[in-house]
Amino acid sequence: MTHIVSDSCIRCKYTDCVDVCPVDCFREGPNMLVIDPDECIDCAVCIPECPVNAIYAEEDLPADQLQFIKLNAELSRAAGWTSITKRKDALPDAEEWKDKTGKLPELKR
Questions:
Q1: Which of 37, 39, 54, 89 supports an S-S bond with 25, CB 3.0-4.6 Å?
Q2: Residues of the chain above pLDDT 90, percent
Q3: What is the pTM of this model?
């Protein structure tokens, strides 16, 4: 099993999770983070660190977020999606977006 970054991360990109990851499995895109399923060791330390509750164990992922299993796997290998290991500032308008849902159309690849 692995952990999955869901819709809630899009346009927020809080990076509190990367500081606690013992295996550096997070990848950073323009306006979202994803988890590389081949690197994740299923430790779950990232889950409580996310201020927008965007990270789930794969088996706990809500039904309306299941497409993010495939999306995390694809984007973690995509050109331009690089490893992130240190916390950075969230996106400038993260506070405006943090409680919104249905953000998949906002994803920049």
A1: 39
A2: 99
A3: 0.96
User: Which contacts of 61-69 are long-range, i.e. CB under 8 A and separated by 24 or more positions?
Assistant: 61/4, 61/6, 62/6, 65/4, 65/6, 65/7, 67/104, 68/4, 68/5, 68/6, 68/7, 69/4
Q: How far apart are CA 8 and CA 105, in angstroms?
A: 12
Give the whole-angstrom CA distance, residue 102 versus residue 100: 7
CA distance 53 to 46: 10
Sign of the torsion angle spanned by Cα atoms 20, 23, 43, 57 = positive
Cα 8 from Cα 85, distance rounded (Å):
20
E-assigned strand segments in 1-109: 3-5, 26-28, 33-35, 55-57, 82-83
